[in-house]
C-alpha cells in the first residue's frame, strides 16, 4: 500500500484542527471528501486512527503513532524538496572535472576561480590524466566533464568547442629552418622529431599533420611534457610541434625559434573541447562551468 504525502498532511491537519469541518476548510477540501479520505486510509491500514465524537476528533493510540511517523516523513520530504531546489539552483552540490595536465594548467585556474566565486556552495574536484583515461572516465560516468583536445576517439562522448589555437614548429635558434618566417611542413620530412608520448591526443594530431604533409615523422625522442620536448629542441636533438598556448607561457629561460607552418598552404589549428557523456543531459553545474570556461577562453 502506498500513502501519498497529501494524505499524511490530511491526517496532521485533522489532528491540529480536531474537527473535520475546520480541517477541510484549511485544506481547501469539501468536508465529505476529507471524511472519505480518512475513512479509506483507516480501512486500508486495518486500524482506527480517530475517535469521532460529536464536535471533535481525537487520535487513537494507532493514530498517535501514525501522526508521529507522518510528521517525520513530511519533514524529510520538505528537506528533500529544499535540497533538490538548492541543487537545481546551484546553491549546493558537487562537480568533478577532468583535464589534460598541460591544457588544464593554462585554462582551468581562472575558470575554477570564477566558478567558485559565483557558486560557492558547489564542491569542485579536479582529476588530471591522459586523454584516453579521461575519455573512459567520462563515458563511464566517473567524471561529469573534461577538458580535452581533438581528435576524440570515444563515441560515448559529446563535445563542445572551447578554444581554437594555432600550432607552431619549435626549432633550435640556429637551425636552417629558422631563417624562414613560415614553412611548409613537408620541408621537415628529413628532420628528427621530438614528440609527446602516443597517449597524448596532441601527439595523435601531430602525427596526422605530418601524414597529411606526405611523410611519417622520424621520432628520435618522446616525452610526457611539452616543455621537456622544447628543452630537447634547444639541445639540438630535433624539432617539435607546439600549441600556441605554450609559446608565451613556457617555463623555459631560453626558447626555441617558433615558426608558423602550413600544409598545402593552410595553417593547422588545435581545438580544445569540453567532453561529457553522450546521454542527452548535462547538469546545471556542468553547464555553468562550461559557459564560464568558454567566456574565459575567448
Automatic annotation (TrEMBL):
InterPro entries: HTH-type_LysR_regulators (IPR050950), LysR_HTH_N (IPR000847), LysR_subst-bd (IPR005119), WH-like_DNA-bd_sf (IPR036388), WH_DNA-bd_sf (IPR036390). It comes from the Bacteria. Residues 3-60 form the HTH lysR-type domain. The keyword Phosphoprotein does not apply. GO terms for cellular component: cytosol. Keywords: DNA-binding, Transcription, Transcription regulation. One of its GO terms (molecular function) is DNA binding. Belongs to the LysR transcriptional regulatory family. This is LysR family transcriptional regulator. It comes from Planococcus glaciei. The lineage of its organism: Bacteria, Bacillati, Bacillota, Bacilli, Bacillales.
